[in-house]
Amino acid sequence: MTITDAQAHVWAPETPERPWLPGGRDFAHGDSYTVESLLSEMDAAQVDAAVLVPPSFEGDRNDVCLAAARDYPDRFRVMGRITLTDPKSRGLLANWRDQPGMLGIRLAFSRGPSDNWMSDGTADWAWPEAEAAGVPIMVFAPDKLHLLDEVAERHPGLRLVVDHLGMRTNVIDDAMDPVIADLVKLARHDNVAVKATCLPSNVTEDFPYPSLHDRIHRVVDAFGPRRVFWGSDLTRLRGTYDEVRRLFTEELDFLAEEDLEWIMGRGVREWLGWK
């Protein structure tokens, strides 16, 4: 079984020549995190490959992640960032996947002005352009799953991935349940998948995180194992990389071996077109 992490970050330090997003340091995961550090962690945790997502605090840059995919093509691919508010971004998606290592885009609607972009029209142009170009989109849209439901309905040819089961970082323990109830409603759309990423950070328990087991079961029952993607979001993960892998590979007795193959990597690779 090839294990592929559905979300990991690498990034470069903030410098005058390469400034981060204004205020980005307030929610950054650290000063920097190199591809060499990530590879070391992956090897120790028996993770074969990872989808790299440029972190939002760096701004709309893809250079560090694309360099990692270029240097380690067997280990990494990229879901890049695009500036929704820049008119020059329109038209870019037609050739987006021609960039070596690039699979799609990742959009976040959770902080500052972006919190309203799904409802105020700012993001409206991206959905049809991505659908027409065959570009999948990972979406972090906590509290907006009803809006994502509408996007999936209007654009059935657009492959969407809901990040972190739709959870904000401050959704802890029993507060997960109403979010999961909203999330599973999206399973009716064949073009929607979910990332089961960073889940130990949503509970106060230690490994093996027993309260997560039934919650994950509910999501897998709704979407099926081919549309649920394991991942770590390592740099903000509570617990260890090995523990978040073993949560799925050793602790969830409702998963058959074939289910694990899909959830632990085959699913995300096929969904995003990582060949």
TrEMBL record:
Protein's name in the database: Putative TIM-barrel fold metal-dependent hydrolase
Pfam families per the UniProt record, alphabetical: Amidohydro_2
Keyword check for Secreted: no
Amidohydrolase-related domain ranges (all copies): 5-265
Protein family according to the UniProt entry: Belongs to the metallo-dependent hydrolases superfamily.
Gene3D superfamilies: Metal-dependent hydrolases (3.20.20.140)
Organism field: Actinophytocola oryzae
UniProt KW keywords: Hydrolase
Molecular function in Gene Ontology: hydrolase activity
Region (Disordered): 1-25
